[in-house]
Amino acid sequence: MTVQNEIIAFDEARAEAFANRFVGTLNEAALAIMTSLGHRAGLFDALAENPGLTSDALALKAGVNERYLREWLGVMVTSGVVAYDPHAGSYTLPPEHAAFLTRAAAPDNMAVTTQFIGVAASVENEMLERFRTGEGLCYGHFDRFHEVMAEDSAQLVVASLVDAILPVVPGLIDRLKDGIDVADFGCGGGRAMLRLAREFPHSRFFGFDLCADAFAATEAEARAEGLENLAFESCDLSSVQSVGRFDLVTAFDAVHDQKDPKGFLALIHRSLRKGGVFLMQDIGGSRDLEKNIKNPFAPLLYTISSMHCTPISIGQGGPGLGAMWGVETAQEYLAATGFASVETHRLPHDPINAYFVARP
């Protein structure tokens, strides 16, 4: 049998549109990198607080070098982010833009999220090699991953934890006020447990993570405050049978990165006391590619999955589920590891993630 390749006509208009789109892609990629830099240097905050400044005055306010600042402003002005008055030589960040680019804008500060582009780029050489070998990465390969993840979590999880996230479990706030035992599995920077330890002094909080350096700063902060109801432990949760028994276990954006996601969930199931509850946040995409095409965050999520989530799991000997393992897979895994009741919630403040409430 002879199979003939279909001849596809070359569409000049389509080719030109694609080329023009990629001009935009290059410019937007450049803008993302410079947005990350501006966020870290506090430039958006300074612009929002001091509209109509010259580059010299803004450099003094922000504590940066004026020559480099002027180049950065060139990017922001030509990208339409910052307004420029050529007669006065002054720069202004419109309030509509400041609402998504300043620290005061959390949880809507998208400048925080642009930092993941730099994190991904920091392992490009290593990932080129892994594309050929199929091997994985470890956390030590990444530049600033724990720092960026902690800041992202601070505005998506920590800031909304008490008012928006915990209330998806009826009666949980009252139980925390009375006093229960809570554990965060894969706690990362530990900011969620720190927030709860401050908010609910009668409850006891424990954070477990593979990397002690991830929560070191938070642990020191808690110690300096004299918080006696918070403790952290460096622990490989893929190789232990028990870390204790708890009334509430949380896992924020942690399960899909694990060496053994099902084993991780089974450990959580074993760790719950009678009447206990598991609260899990994870990426709210689908495992089916076609269902993610209209998801406005899909290219970013697949990039982070390709450059971090998948290789981190593979590097531990895991399956490499990736960030886009899907709500469907999460629900199936929870059921397969013994959770009899699983509820899935979408919260208004967080368009990226899904929140799961699971009970044994």
What is this structure, in a nutshell?
With 360 residues, this protein is of the alpha/beta class. It is 48% helix and 15% strand. It contains 16 helices and 10 strands.
Structure characterization notes:
The chain is an alpha/beta fold and 360 residues long. It has two domains: 12-102, Orthogonal Bundle (Arc Repressor Mutant, subunit A), CATH 1.10.10; 117-359, Rossmann fold (3-Layer(aba) Sandwich). The chain contains 16 helices and ten strands. It has helices at 12-40, 43-49, 55-62, 66-78, 95-98, 110-121, 124-133, 145-156, 161-165, 172-178, 191-199, 212-225, 261-271, 289-292, 298-315, 327-336, and strands spanning 53-54, 83-85, 90-92, 181-185, 204-209, 230-234, 246-252, 272-283, 341-345, 353-359. The strands form two sheets. Strands 6-5-4-7-8-10-9 form a seven-stranded mixed beta sheet, sandwiched between helices. Strand 9 (341-345) and strand 10 (353-359) form a beta hairpin. The longest helix is centred in the N-terminal third of the chain and has 29 residues, at 12-40. The radius of gyration is 23 Å and the shape is globular. The mean pLDDT is 95.
CATH architecture of the largest domain: 3-Layer(aba) Sandwich
Reported by name, the CATH topology of the largest domain is Rossmann fold
Mean pLDDT across all residues, rounded?
A: 95
Number of separate helices: 16
The main sheet comes to: 7 strands, mixed
* Beta-strand percentage range: 15-25%
User: For this structure, what is the CATH homologous superfamily of the largest domain?
Assistant: Vaccinia Virus protein VP39
List the secondary-structure elements in sequence, H or E: HHEHHEEHHHHHHEHEHEEHEHHHEE
Regions with little confidence, pLDDT below 50 for 5+ residues: none
Helix content: 40-55%
The top level CATH class name of the largest domain: Alpha Beta
Within the largest sheet, what's the order of strands?
A: 6-5-4-7-8-10-9
What's the total number of strands? Answer: 10
Structural class: alpha/beta
- The coarse silhouette is globular
Number of domains: 2
Domain S-adenosylmethionine-dependent methyltransferase Rv2258c-like winged HTH: 29-103
Keywords: Plasmid
Pfam families: Methyltransf_31, WHD_Rv2258c
Protein name: Transcriptional regulator
